[in-house]
C-alpha cells in the first residue's frame, strides 16, 4: 500500500468491513436493492412474459400456456414498450445522468484549462461524481436496451447513425475522465502535468461533440416537432445540463467540501445558468411548433411545465440573486435546480411524444375500432420495473463514487495543496 | 424493382380481414396493439351530419425512410425493391426507429424482443415468387393493389395513371410509397376524409419525386434479405 505523507492518507486502503459498514455504501446498497428488484421485474416482463403468434395458436391449440398468452394479448397491458410513446422514463433518466455527468466533467475541464484554483482542489471529487453519473446513465440505458443483441453495435456498426456514434464517444470520454482523475490524484508528477493540458483539450472537444450528437438523436425524429423545432438544441442541452451540473457540484460542496469561497463561486455561476435557462425557455417557445407548444404551455403538461420553470429558474434565481451568508439558501437553490431540471428533461421526452402521430390524414386523430376512445394526447405511466431501475440508478452513483473515494481518498484530496 | 401499394380506401368496409390475414401469414404477435397493418376510424360531422372515414394503413415504405438512418446496427434497412425491412436478430431495442417513424408503423414484437413492421410479405410471399401481399389477396373489396412502380405494365402503374392520389404527411419529406386514391363520385366522403391542404398528385407529377428520392437512397438497397 502506498502512503501519502502530506495528510497521512492511506491509498488503496479499501477493505471488506469498510465496504459493508460505511454509511454511504449502506445507502447505495439500499438503492441498488431497488434497482435489483426493478431488473428482476424487467427481465421477467421482457423475456419471460408469455406472448404468442397466430402460428403458435394453430400449432398448440390445447396448450394452457397458449391460453395464458392469448389472455395476456387480449387483457394484458400491451407489452413493455408502447407504440405511440417508445421513449419513456429510461430515456429521461439516461439523458439526465449522462448530460449532467458530462456537464460536470466539461466544467471541471474548463476550470482546469483556465486554472481556476478554487475548482482544482475538489476537481478529483467532481470528476468522480460526474463519472459516477455517466455510469448511472449507462446503467439505465442498458436496462432499456435488449442487451442480448448489444454485440451487434460492434459487429454491425452503422457509422452514420447518431445512436451508434454514442458508443465510440463513451469509449473515449469514460477513460478520459478516469485519466483526468488519475492525473489529479498524482498531480505532483511533472510529466503528467504536461499531458494534462492535451487531455483537457480533447475532453472539451469530445464534450462538444457529445452534446451535438445527442441533440442530433432527437432532431432526426422529423415528425416529433417539439424536438425538431427547438431552436439550437445542442445549446439548450448544454445550458440545462450545466445548470444542473453546477447545482450538483454545489450540493456536493455543501455536503463534502464546505469551502465558502468554492460555494460562493458555484453560486454565482449557478445564478448565471438559471437565468440563461429561464430566458432560453421563454424565447424557445416562440419558435416551437404550436401543436406541441399548445400541449405543454396550455394543455395537459402545463402544470408540470410551470413547476419546472418555478423550480429550475425562478426559485433559484430569487435565492441566488443576492449573496446570502447562510448556506441554506444555496442548498435549497441547488435542490430546486436539480429537481426542476429533471422535470424539464421529463417534459422534453414525454412532451415530444405527447402529440399523437395518428393524425395521418390531416382530418383528425384516428381511433382503432368503434369502442375505442380518440387519443388527443399521448402519455403512459412507466411500469414499476422502470421506476425502480431509475430510482436504483442513484445507488450506482453512490456506489461508484464512494468506492473510488474509499480506494483513492478522493474526498481527502481536497485538503492537499495541489500547487 | 421498386415496390409500392395503392389503397382505394373509399372501398374499405372495416372487415379487418387484412389484419387477420397479415397476422396469420406473417406470424405477427397476437394483440390489438401489435399490428403490422391496421384500419382506423376518424369521426367527423358537417352541419350535424355524422361521417366516419375508414383509413387502412401500414408502413409507408418511404423512399427516404428516417427509420433506416437512425438504426445503429443495420437492423432497419432497405431490402429488395426498396422495401423497408427489419432484421430482428440485429435489433437492440433502442426504439429510435419507432420515434423516427411519422406513421407509428412500428411496434415491439415481444416474442422476439425486437421491433417489427410490415415488409410487404417479403419473407412469406415475395421470396416465393408471388406478387401479392396477404392483405391484398384477402381484401373482399379490393382496396389494395401491390406492385412494382418501375414496371410500366404493372396493374399498380395502370391504376395510378388513371386515378389521382395523395400520400401521408408529405411535409415530413419521407417520400412514402403508399398511394391513397382520391375518392371518386362522393364529394361528401372526399371532404370528410381528405384534409383541405393535402396535395393531390397524378402519376406524372409524383414520379419525379420518386425518381429523385430513389436516386438518393438506391445505393443502400440490398438485393436480398439478411
Unreliable parts of chain A: 1-10
Which two chains touch over the largest interface?
Answer: A-B, 62 and 62 residues
Say how many strands of chain B there are.
10
Strand order in the sheet with the most strands of chain A: 1-2
**Helix percentage range of chain A:** over 70%
User: Architecture of chain B, according to CATH?
Assistant: 2-Layer Sandwich
Amount of beta strand of chain A: under 5%
By helix and strand content of chain B, what is the structural category?
alpha+beta
Count of the separate structural domains of chain B: 1
Tell me the number of strands of chain A.
2
What is the topology, as strand order, of the major beta sheet of chain B?
A: 8-1-10-9
Q: Gap between N and C termini of chain A, in Å?
A: 25 Å
Q: How large is the radius of gyration of chain A?
A: 24 Å
Query: How would a textbook summarize the main sheet of chain B?
Result: 4 strands, mixed
CATH topology of chain B: Alpha-Beta Plaits
Number of helices of chain A: 17
Q: What does the average pLDDT of chain B come to?
A: 93
Write up this protein:
The complex is a heterodimer of chains A (419) and B (226). Chain A is mainly α and 419 residues long. Chain A contains 17 helices and 2 strands. Chain A folds into 2 domains: 1-48 and 84-220 and 384-419, no CATH class; 221-359 and 372-380. Chain A has a two-stranded antiparallel ribbon. In chain A, a hairpin with a 4-residue loop joins strand 1 and strand 2 (9-10). The relative contact order of chain A is 0.16. The model of chain A is unreliable at 1-10 (pLDDT under 50). Chain B is an alpha+beta fold. Chain B has a single domain (3-65, 79-84, 131-220), classed as Alpha-Beta Plaits. Helices cover 24% and strands 21% of the residues of chain B. Chain B has 7 helices and 10 strands. In chain B, strands 8-1-10-9 form a 4-stranded mixed beta sheet, covered by helices on one side. Chain B has a two-stranded antiparallel ribbon with strand order 2-3. The longest helix of chain B is centred in the last third of the chain and has 15 residues, at 203-217. The mean pLDDT of chain B is 93. Chains A and B meet through helix 3, helix 4 and helix 9 of A and strand 2, strand 3, helix 2 and helix 3 of B.
Amino acid at each position: 500500500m502506498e502512503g501519502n505523507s502530506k495528510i497521512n492518507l492511506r491509498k488503496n486502503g479499501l477493505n471488506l468491513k469498510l465496504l459493508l459498514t460505511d454509511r454511504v455504501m449502506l445507502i447505495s446498497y439500499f438503492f441498488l436493492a431497488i434497482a435489483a428488484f426493478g431488473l428482476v421485474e424487467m427481465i421477467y416482463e421482457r423475456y419471460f412474459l408469455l406472448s404468442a403468434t397466430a402460428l403458435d395458436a394453430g400449432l398448440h391449440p390445447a396448450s394452457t400456456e397458449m391460453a395464458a398468452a392469448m389472455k395476456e394479448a387480449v387483457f394484458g397491458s400491451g407489452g413493455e414498450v408502447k407504440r405511440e410513446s417508445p421513449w419513456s422514463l429510461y430515456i429521461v433518466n439516461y439523458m439526465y445522468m449522462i448530460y449532467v455527468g458530462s456537464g460536470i466533467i466539461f466544467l471541471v475541464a474548463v476550470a482546469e484549462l483556465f486554472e481556476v484554483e478554487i475548482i482544482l482542489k475538489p476537481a478529483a471529487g467532481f470528476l468522480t461524481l460526474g463519472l459516477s453519473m455517466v455510469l448511472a446513465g449507462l446503467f439505465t440505458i442498458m436496462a432499456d436496451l435488449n442487451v442480448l443483441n448489444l454485440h451487434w453495435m460492434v459487429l454491425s456498426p452503422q457509422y452514420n447513425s447518431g445512436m451508434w456514434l454514442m458508443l465510440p464517444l463513451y469509449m473515449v470520454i469514460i477513460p478520459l475522465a478516469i485519466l483526468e482523475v488519475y492525473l489529479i490524484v498524482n498531480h505532483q508528477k511533472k510529466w503528467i502535468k504536461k499531458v494534462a493540458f492535451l487531455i483537457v483539450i480533447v475532453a472539451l472537444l469530445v464534450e462538444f461533440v457529445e452534446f451535438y450528437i445527442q441533440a442530433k438523436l432527437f432532431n432526426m425524429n422529423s415528425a416529433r416537432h417539439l424536438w425538431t423545432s427547438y431552436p439550437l438544441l445542442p445549446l439548450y442541452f448544454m445550458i440545462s445540463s450545466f445548470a444542473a451540473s453546477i447545482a450538483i457540484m454545489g450540493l456536493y460542496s455543501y455536503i463534502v467540501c464546505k469551502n465558502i469561497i468554492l460555494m460562493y463561486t458555484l453560486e454565482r455561476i449557478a445564478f448565471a445558468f438559471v437565468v440563461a435557462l429561464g430566458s432560453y425557455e421563454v424565447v424557445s417557445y416562440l419558435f416551437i411548433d404550436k401543436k406541441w407548444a399548445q400541449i405543454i404551455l396550455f394543455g395537459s403538461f402545463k402544470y408540470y411545465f410551470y413547476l419546472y420553470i418555478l423550480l429550475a429558474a425562478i426559485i433559484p434565481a430569487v435565492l441566488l440573486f443576492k449573496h446570502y451568508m447562510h448556506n441554506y439558501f444555496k442548498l435549497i437553490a441547488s435542490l430546486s435546480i436539480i429537481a426542476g431540471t429533471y422535470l424539464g428533461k421529463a417534459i422534453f421526452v414525454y412532451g415530444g411524444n405527447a402529440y399523437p402521430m395518428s393524425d395521418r390524414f390531416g382530418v383528425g386523430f384516428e381511433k382503432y375500432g368503434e369502442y375505442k376512445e380518440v387519443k388527443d394526447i399521448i402519455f403512459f405511466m412507466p411500469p414499476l420495473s422502470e421506476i425502480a431501475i431509475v430510482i436504483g440508478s442513484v445507488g450506482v452513483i453512490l456506489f461508484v463514487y464512494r468506492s473510488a473515494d474509499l480506494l483513492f481518498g478522493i474526498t481527502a484530496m481536497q485538503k492537499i495543496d495541489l500547487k | 424493382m421498386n415496390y409500392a401499394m395503392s389503397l382505394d380506401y373509399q372501398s374499405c368496409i372495416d372487415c379487418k380481414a387484412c389484419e387477420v390475414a397479415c397476422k396469420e401469414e406473417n406470424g405477427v404477435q397476437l394483440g390489438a396493439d401489435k399490428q403490422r397493418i391496421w384500419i382506423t376510424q376518424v369521426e367527423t360531422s358537417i352541419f350535424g351530419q355524422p361521417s366516419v372515414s375508414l383509413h387502412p394503413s401500414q408502413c409507408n415504405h418511404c423512399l427516404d425512410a428516417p427509420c433506416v438512418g437512425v438504426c445503429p446496427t443495420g437492423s432497419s434497412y432497405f431490402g429488395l425493391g426498396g422495401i423497408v425491412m427489419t432484421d430482428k436478430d440485429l435489433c437492440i431495442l433502442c426504439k429510435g426507429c419507432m420515434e423516427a417513424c411519422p406513421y407509428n408503423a412500428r411496434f415491439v414484437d415481444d416474442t422476439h424482443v425486437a421491433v417489427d413492421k410490415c415488409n410487404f410479405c417479403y419473407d412469406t410471399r415475395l421470396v416465393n415468387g408471388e406478387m401479392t401481399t396477404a392483405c391484398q389477396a384477402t381484401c373482399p373489396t379490393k382496396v389494395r393493389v401491390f406492385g412494382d412502380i418501375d414496371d410500366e405494365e404493372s396493374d399498380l402503374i395502370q391504376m395510378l395513371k388513371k386515378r389521382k392520389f395523395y400520400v401521408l404527411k408529405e411535409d415530413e419529406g419521407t417520400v412514402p410509397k403508399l398511394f391513397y386514391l382520391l375518392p371518386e363520385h362522393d364529394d361528401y366522403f372526399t371532404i370528410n376524409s381528405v384534409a383541405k391542404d393535402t396535395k393531390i398528385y397524378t402519376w406524372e407529377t409524383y414520379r419525379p419525386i420518386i425518381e429523385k428520392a430513389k436516386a438518393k437512397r438506391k445505393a443502400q438497397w440490398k438485393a436480398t434479405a439478411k
